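Lab notebook: predicted structure, single chain.

Context: the supervisor wants predicted structures on file for every construct in the current expression panel, including those that have not yet been purified. This is the next one on the list. No modifications to the sequence; it matches the entry in the shared construct table.
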Amino acid sequence: MPFAARRVARRTARRTSTRPAAAAPPPQAAPAPAPAPAAPSAPAEPAYMAELEQLNQLKTQGIISEEEYEAKKKQILGL
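Prediction complete. Output recorded below exactly as produced.
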């Protein structure tokens, strides 16, 4: 399957999987109390890490090739 066709298939799958199943109104919830200050924890991972992990999953699943993976990884990392 050509790269463009795979990209369209992924985009279509993403769109259809995020649509709500029914047009039911969201449940009414009481307003949440103000969150307590968070205790110091490990530093947040950089935003690009999630994108790289997702890219690796696509490569592992065979959706993208090793060459496509390396090219996109370099683009994300700015190399």
